[in-house]
Design a protein that fits this description.
The chain is 48% helix and 16% strand. The chain folds into 3 domains: 96 residues, Helix Hairpins (Orthogonal Bundle); 120 residues, Rossmann fold (3-Layer(aba) Sandwich), CATH 3.40.50; 63 residues, Regulator of K+ conductance, C-terminal domain (Alpha-Beta Plaits). It is α/β, with parallel strands linked by helices. It is a multi-pass membrane protein.
Length: 341
């Protein structure tokens, strides 16, 4: 093997072992030594003014070599050939390599869920159910485009399934202080907890409520017992029970019910159920007035409302609607320009 090649490999290996501080020291030392040597060689045009010197050093070390500046003395040419160019190339290569390494490592941390998420007012999803979770994210991305960012936090050994669309955090437990802090649990606007194990969902919901008392928590349970228990500890939590058995029974008695419910929950096409808050400064009105106005102006159908945690579906037309009631309606798309006056 060529001795000069072996020397270059040894020098490169030594540079690669340098810490960031050592690399900076090497760059500064290289710049100072080059300036002193060129100055002693009488290359005043290369060393003064200082900005010209830095420019020359950069285009030389980066192999760009514009040619508008070059040594004129014999000593200067030897210095550039034996020191400025070889050392500059080595330092430049190491610097670019380190920068690329840092960039790749930062990207890999995000892909593997090891990076802290700098976000607030986001939707935090806790749990991984493969295609079910992907479908949930797909619907949220459709509804929340350019609104609330989405962060997925999982215990499973996976990488970010949608790296260009969502942020991602991995943890060993949904009650781990450090990991949940990286996911921004205390700054989340909504937390969705969906796990195959109800006990993990229950513990995660209690932890999130303790860290963010005002957050909107949605917890999916297979068993209704834990759902009721969570409501006693976290009144603000919205528990989503499994309705698969009820749906089968309903479809057996009223064929097509499952298709109807699927259509109402589909955010991509067809008539979909939405909700809107009746403004706090709006006047008292009736179901009949709002029903007719929403139908005529927006082709939307009012189907019910919620007041004080109680939901009324298909309410009588003469029933009063009060400010801050949550109205439920069906429409092709979410209506963004309701006029309440």
């Amino acid at each position: 093997m060529n001795k000069w090649y072996m020397v270059r490999r040894w020098i490169t290996s030594q540079f690669q072992r340098l810490s960031g501080k050592h690399v900076i020291t090497a760059v500064l030392s290289y710049a100072v030594i080059s300036w002193v040597l060129l100055r002693l060689a009488g290359e005043h045009a290369l060393t003064s003014p200082f900005v010209d010197y830095i420019y020359y050093l950069l285009v030389t070390a980066s192999t760009v070599g514009y040619g508008d500046m070059s040594p004129t003395t014999s000593a200067g040419k030897w210095i550039v050939a034996l020191f400025v160019i070889p050392c500059g190339l080595s330092i430049f290569a190491i610097g670019v390599g380190r920068l690329a390494g840092v960039t790749i490592e930062y990207w890999r941390k995000g892909l593997l869920g090891r990076r802290s998420i700098d976000v607030s007012g986001h939707i935090l999803i806790l749990g991984w159910n493969e295609s079910r979770t992907l479908h949930l994210i797909d619907m949220l991305l459709h509804e929340e485009k350019d609104k609330r960012p989405i962060v997925l936090c999982v215990r499973a050994d996976i990488e970010n399934p949608l790296p260009k669309e969502i942020d991602f955090v991995r943890t060993t437990s949904f009650t781990d202080e450090t990991a949940m802090s990286r996911a921004g649990v205390s700054d989340a606007d909504c937390i969705i907890i969906d796990n195959p194990e109800d006990d993990i969902t229950f513990a995660a919901a209690l932890f999130c409520a303790s860290k963010n008392p005002d957050v909107h928590i949605l917890a999916y349970f297979q068993e209704e017992v834990l759902s009721d228990l969570l409501k006693t500890h976290c009144p603000n939590a919205e528990c989503i029970p499994s309705v698969s058995v009820e749906m089968m029974a309903k479809s057996a008695v009223d064929p097509g019910s499952s298709e109807l419910h699927h259509e109402l929950l589909n955010t991509r096409k067809g008539m979909t159920q939405y909700a809107v808050a009746y403004p706090g400064d709006a006047q008292y009105t009736t179901v009949e007035v709002l029903f007719m106005r929403m139908k005529k102006e927006h082709d939307a159908t009012l189907i019910g409302f919620r007041r004080d945690s109680h939901v009324r579906l298909n309410p009588p037309l003469d029933l009063e609607i009060k400010p801050n009631d949550l109205l439920f309606y069906i429409a092709d798309e979410r209506v963004l320009d309701f006029k309440w006056d």
